Each structure stands twice: as C-alpha cells, then as structure tokens.
C-alpha cells in the first residue's frame, strides 16, 4: 500500500489489515492517523461538554428581499409580451381580400364559389 492510498483509507475511516501493516512501517502515515484520532476525540469531548449559553442566538437573515419576487413576477409578464411583439413584427400583416381581383381591368365577374364548383362536378348535367 502506498502513502496516498493509506491517507485516503484514513480519511474514509477504513481500517484494513493492509493499512495497519503500512502504519506499522510508515512514520508519516502513523502521525497522520494519530492526528486524526486526537482530533476525533477532541470533537467528541467538545460535543459532550459544550452547551451554548442563553445569550447565544443565531440570527437568520430576514426573508428574501421583496424586490426579488417583483423581479420574477415582472419577468414572467414581460417575457411573453416580448415574444408576442417579436412574432408580430417578424411576420407582416396580410390583407384579407384579393387585391389583384380588385385591380384587374376587364371582367368584374366574381369567381365561382365552392358550392357552384362542387355542383358542376357532382350533379348530373340534366339537373340545374
């Protein structure tokens, strides 16, 4: 086992036979293991002995700033409006009537309606 592997095993809390063999032979890793053990004991003792005083209070920050909520609400309103505006600007308006028919000189007859076209296609010729 290499020193890097031993330090990783110590950090993870694994005590394998290979680690014990390495610690018996390596002074640097044994010192790291002793330091970690002392630190663990110190934390256990601190958890058992230390109690916060009555004056000890953790001050939590107030609720999030109200401007953040306003910013979110404004973006939820503004973004769809910007999308709608971009879509209407990108596509030009088309007229609802046939300008070519109005400007044509010559015959002013209206083109046959769908009903007239279908009647000529599907009714026998002897019926009106």
Could you give a short description of this structure?
The protein has six helices and no strands. By secondary structure, it is an all-alpha fold.
Provide the fold topology.
Blueprint: H1 3-12, H2 17-25, H3 27-49, H4 66-90, H5 99-103, H6 114-122
Helix pairs in contact: 1-3, 2-3
Question: What does this entry look like structurally?
Answer:
By secondary structure, this protein is mostly helical. It has a domain of 47 residues. Helices cover 63% and strands 0% of the residues. It contains six helices and no strands. The longest helix has 25 residues.
Jot down its keywords.
0% strand; 63% helix; elongated; 128 residues
Note the overall shape. elongated
User: Helix-strand pattern, N to C?
Assistant: HHHHHH
Helix count, per DSSP? 6
Oligomer: single chain
Give the percentage of residues in beta strands.
under 5%
Helix content: 55-70%
Structural class: mainly alpha
């Amino acid at each position: 086992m290499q020193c890097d592997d031993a330090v990783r095993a110590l950090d993870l809390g694994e005590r394998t036979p290979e680690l014990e063999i390495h610690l018996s032979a390596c002074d640097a890793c044994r010192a790291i293991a002793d330091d970690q053990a002392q630190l663990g004991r110190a934390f256990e003792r601190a958890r058992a002995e230390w109690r916060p005083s009555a004056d000890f209070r953790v001050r939590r920050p107030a609720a999030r700033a109200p401007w953040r909520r306003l910013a979110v609400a404004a973006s939820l309103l503004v973004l769809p409006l910007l999308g709608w505006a971009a879509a209407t600007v990108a596509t030009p308006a088309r007229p609802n009537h046939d300008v070519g028919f109005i400007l044509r000189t010559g015959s002013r007859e209206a083109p046959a309606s769908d009903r007239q076209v279908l009647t000529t296609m599907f009714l026998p010729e002897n019926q009106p």
